[in-house]
Amino acid sequence: MTSLGSLPRDGRSGTGDGPRLYVFPHAGGSGLAFQGWADHAPAGWRVLPVDAPGHGSLLGLPLVSDGEALVTHFLDRLGSELDDDEAPFAFFGHSMGALVAYELTRRLLAEGRRAPVWLGVSACGVPSADGPRVPVPLRDLTDEELRRRMALLGGTPAQVLDHPGLWQVFAPVIRADLHLVANWRSAPAAGPLPVPVSVFGGTHDGAASPEELARWAGLCARFLGVHLFPGGHFYFQDDPRPLFEVLAGEVRTALLARRDRVAGR
């Protein structure tokens, strides 16, 4: 994760009457990795990175070790905001966050509640009843091996990897998340997801290949395609602008399609 400053206490950045973009981070990560995205958002958008228990702004809370329980946490935490029909909202999830965003969308639809106008999944294979098709060998590594692998994978600040005290704090969080992802189980879907879905990834991501990313098309009724960028698992880390430009365009397309349906065109 990349720290670009401090978020307001409620995690919000940007104001206006445009769409709200909820961002769900990767395993071991927090909303700090995405706080700079507000600088690239169109006027009126609100970019809202959200933390899981035991991460970022919620570091003092117990970690959640079950995927369904984690989705329930976000459903409870964001419920009143998601039910507010004053502005549309969209979801973007990276790696583990993609699983959260997808399952949260399914839960909202199953409960007859407002769903996001658009879902973006990044660097993650499709979930299944047997677990996601994402290799998670890191959970079985020794502490030193895990540290080296995380450095190669990217996404974890060097000051965390190199500082013994910080590593002792964050290593259990990373391991817990990797265990959660490895044991993630997704109930069979009632049908293709009706929400527009865009998929993003890095051309050299060993954890989620372009072929794995393309499998999302089989779960979606309105699949908008796979968008690949140079780089690995954290392809957007150095410069999120190329990703966000595509993301913003996809959200706009989804919003226009929604308005046409409402208007009966």
List the helices and strands and how they pair.
Elements lengths: L19 E5 L21 E4 L17 H16 L6 E6 L1 H15 L8 E4 L20 H11 L4 H5 L1 H19 L14 E6 L7 H5 L8 E7 L11 H23 L2
Parallel strand pairs: 1-2, 1-3, 3-4, 4-5, 5-6
Can you describe this structure?
This protein is an alpha/beta fold. It has a single domain (20-260), classed as 3-Layer(aba) Sandwich (Rossmann fold). Helix content is 35%, strand content 12%. It is built from seven helices and six strands. The chain has helices spanning 67-82, 96-110, 143-153, 158-162, 164-182, 210-214, 241-263, and strands at residues 20-24, 46-49, 89-94, 119-122, 197-202, 223-229. It has a six-stranded parallel sheet, sandwiched between helices. Helix 6 (210-214) links the parallel strand 5 (197-202) and strand 6 (223-229). Helix 1 packs across helix 2 (96-110). The longest helix is centred in the C-terminal third of the chain and has 23 residues, at 241-263. The protein is globular and about 60 Å long. Residues 20-237 form the Thioesterase domain. Belongs to the thioesterase family. InterPro entries: AB_hydrolase_fold, TEII, Thioesterase.
Q: Briefly note the CATH topology name.
A: Rossmann fold
- Count of folded domains: 1
Strand content: 5-15%
Structural class: alpha/beta
**Number of helical elements:** 7
Shape: globular
Helix content: 25-40%
What is Rg?
17 Å
Low-confidence stretches: 1-15
Distance between the termini: 43 Å
Order of helices and strands: EEHEHEHHHEHEH
CATH class: Alpha Beta
Question: Please, what is the average pLDDT?
Answer: 85
Give me the side-by-side strand order of the main sheet. Answer: 2-1-3-4-5-6
Largest beta-sheet characterization: 6 strands, parallel
CATH architecture: 3-Layer(aba) Sandwich
Counting DSSP E segments of at least 2 residues, the number of strands comes to 6
Instruction: Give the assembly state of these chains.
Output: single chain
CATH homologous superfamily caption: Alpha/Beta hydrolase fold, catalytic domain
